[in-house]
Design goal:
Aldehyde Ferredoxin Oxidoreductase Protein, subunit A, domain 3; Aldehyde Ferredoxin Oxidoreductase Protein, subunit A, domain 2; 3-stranded antiparallel β-sheet; 21 helices; binds iron/sulfur cluster
């Protein structure tokens, strides 16, 4: 889109909305969905009053927020970047998608100091972590300013923050110097350099910022040496700020996500860190976040998240496990007049997840691309609740491939495709694996 100077699509219809098949049943299901949503403790006590910034403190308490380009985890950033300081120091109003009863977003204005008057959407949780804790930056106003500037240029704050975090570690390790950075001192927490760099990336100004604008994996090739070791990505996508050493389920969902380190997939810590249970996933006991084995429930959680996407609804309603699969099925049944159970939704989602996998397979992706950066296997978390933890990535992959009905190379088996009614893709798989078509 960027190369075509295309900023956005807008679509509207002059037709009328389709009629609900059973209006009464639909409205009853909406009431129940709202009841589930608004009475879910995390939604009620954290998300509605404090928005996504409330995640910062909650996740830090479990060792889930990365610091210093994922070298560390929990630090004392809560006092400055946590939700209390956020709501006290910034001028804040609620920002919500149309008709949303939660309103997880925040619109802020910086009231004083060097960046006074800058305003815009966020910073949301991911931006606080990306421009704050990941970069060793404790100045809330500077973090907010970096977020607003990134938004002004249409930059993804997660990716931009992660790219700068990588560059800061290159600087720390002596792989790049001030001559390479066009004069910027990329010492951790240097607010001025961070903000200047965001501006420059947005404008593609200077050699260094232009290089970073290509993404950290491509930039690492130019930096050379062992630069790639410090690029925190999966399948080329920069990692968001969802801890992986302290939640092995989160590690796994990043690893097998078809888009790479994608934070818009299931949020495993809901179950293995925040101790939620869910009978639809077969999770009826507290799960251990550090244990690689026993993560089979990530599969149905992935399917619930995908089902939410297929329904065009907000992922927060499912990753908080607020609205149940059963309720989504009731809503869809009442709207369409077709009978759905939650298992049908999960099955539809599984079909999509398998087709995504086949797409990647066709484009050359395989098990080798399902790994987190080496750091997470070889460098134990030095601090926080996950102290000492590394991720045993092969254990996670072997287990989830088996549960998904994929081969040990991560390719959907013929039996799985037949079970899902995806027989048309069987020749593609057989060609890929070198087997003969029956
Ligand atoms: S629809 Fe989702 S993303 Fe939008 S305000 Fe509501 S909870 Fe937040």
């Amino acid at each position: 889109m960027g190369s075509k100077n295309l900023k956005a699509f807008a679509v509207y219809s002059e037709g009328s909305l389709p009629e609900l098949a059973d209006k009464e049943a639909f409205e009853a299901a909406v009431r129940d969905a709202l009841d589930e949503l608004l009475n879910e403790p995390f939604v009620k006590d954290e998300m509605i009053p404090y928005g996504t910034p409330s995640f910062f403190d909650a996740m830090n308490s479990l060792g889930l927020v990365p610091a210093y380009n994922w070298q560390r985890t929990t630090t004392d950033f809560d006092s400055t970047l946590g939700y209390k300081n956020y709501h006290e120091k910034l001028e804040v109003s609620v920002d919500r998608c149309y008709n949303c009863p939660i309103g997880c977003g925040r619109y802020t204005r910086i009231p004083e100091g060097k960046y006074a008057g800058l305003e815009g959407g966020g910073p949301e949780y991911e931006t606080l972590a990306a421009f704050g804790q990941k970069l060793g930056l404790r100045d809330l106003y500077a973090v907010t300013a970096a977020g607003h500037i990134a938004n002004k240029y249409g930059l993804d704050t997660i990716g931009t923050g992660q790219i700068i975090a990588t560059a800061m570690e290159w600087y720390e390790k002596g792989l790049i110097d001030q001559e390479f950075t066009d004069g910027l001192d990329l010492t951790w927490g240097n607010a001025e350099a961070i903000i200047t760099l965001v501006e420059r990336i947005g404008k593609r100004e200077g050699k260094f910022a232009t290089l970073l604008g290509e993404g950290s994996l491509r930039a690492a090739e130019t930096v050379g040496g062992d630069a790639v070791k410090y690029v925190m990505h999966v399948k080329g996508m920069e990692m968001a700020a969802d801890g992986v050493r302290a939640s092995k389920s989160e590690a796994l969902s990043h690893m097998v996500s078809p888009r790479g380190a994608d934070h818009l997939r299931p949020y495993g810590p809901t179950i293995d860190c925040f101790a939620y249970q869910n009978d639809e996933f077969g999770v009826l006991e507290t799960k251990d976040p550090f244990k690689e084995e026993d993560k089979a429930w990530v599969k149905p959680f992935e399917e619930l998240s995908m089902a939410t996407n297929l329904l065009g609804t907000c992922l927060f309603a499912s990753i908080t496990l607020a609205i149940r699969g059963r309720t989504w099925a009731r809503l869809l049944s009442a709207a369409t007049g077709l009978k759905y159970e939650y298992q049908d939704l999960f099955k539809a989602a599984e079909r999509v997840l398998n087709i995504e996998r086949l797409f990647n397979m066709r484009e050359g992706f395989s098990r080798k691309d399902d790994y987190l950066p080496e750091r997470f296997s070889t460098e134990p978390a030095p601090d926080g609740p996950g102290k000492g933890q590394v991720v045993q990535q092969d254990v996670l992959l072997d287990e989830i491939y088996a549960v998904k009905g994929w081969s040990s190379d991560g390719i959907p088996t013929v039996e799985k495709l037949a079970e899902l009614g995806l027989e048309e893709y069987i020749p593609l798989v057989l060609t890929h694996t070198g087997e003969k078509t029956a």
